[in-house]
């Protein structure tokens, strides 16, 4: 689907219907778990360097972005030591479960928003119950 996004942007055809899946009827791409957003964002890379380079770039940045996001979550939100945060982030970003999916399921390895969502839920819970907040922290800050 990465190559399909580059092709459609080049032709100025940004439809979300394709006949490349479920031929000959086609399919609505919003009903499929694909990398439409990543393919659209990385269209310049696809057109300049090709699909293999784009795939490798998305795969690497997804794993690294997931690990970095979890590191900030563990170290700043949960207040762990930098070593514990780094080990936890390494396991979340480069563990066997996520690396095994990285070869063909890019949408499953782009989990860099998951720690942000967990942080927002914790922030809501702390704002609702001021007694549950750690000392010295504010409701709006990390």
What can you tell me about this protein's structure?
This protein has 142 residues and is an all-alpha fold. Helices cover 61% and strands 3% of the residues. The chain has helices spanning 2-10, 36-41, 43-49, 51-77, 82-94, 96-101, 106-109, 114-128; strands spanning 17-18, 27-28. The protein has a two-stranded antiparallel ribbon with strand order 1-2. Strand 1 (17-18) and strand 2 form a beta hairpin. The mean pLDDT is 81.
Number of helices: 8
Report the principal-axis shape: elongated
Determine the strand fraction and express it as a percent band: under 5%
The largest sheet, given as strand count, sense and whether it forms a barrel, is: 2 strands, antiparallel
Quantity of strands, as a count: 2
Instruction: Give the SSE string.
Output: HEEHHHHHHH
In round numbers, the mean pLDDT is 81
N- and C-termini, Cα separation: 37 Å
Determine the structural class based on helices, strands and strand pairing: mainly alpha
Low-confidence stretches: none
> Which strand order spans the largest sheet, edge to edge or round the barrel?
1-2
Helical content band: 55-70%
Radius of gyration: 19 Å
């Amino acid at each position: 689907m990465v190559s399909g996004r580059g092709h459609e942007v080049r032709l100025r055809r940004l439809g979300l219907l394709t006949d490349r899946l479920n031929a000959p009827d086609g399919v609505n791409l919003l009903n499929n778990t694909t990398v439409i957003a990543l393919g659209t964002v990385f269209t310049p890379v696809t057109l300049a360097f090709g699909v293999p380079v784009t795939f490798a770039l998305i795969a690497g940045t997804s794993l690294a972005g997931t690990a970095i996001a979890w590191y900030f979550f563990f170290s700043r939100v949960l207040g762990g030591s930098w070593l514990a945060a780094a080990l936890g982030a390494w396991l979340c970003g480069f563990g066997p479960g996520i690396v095994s999916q990285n070869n063909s399921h890019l949408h499953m390895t782009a989990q860099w928003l998951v720690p942000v969502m967990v942080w927002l839920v914790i922030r809501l819970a702390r704002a609702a119950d001021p007694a549950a907040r750690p000392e010295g922290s504010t409701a709006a800050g990390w």
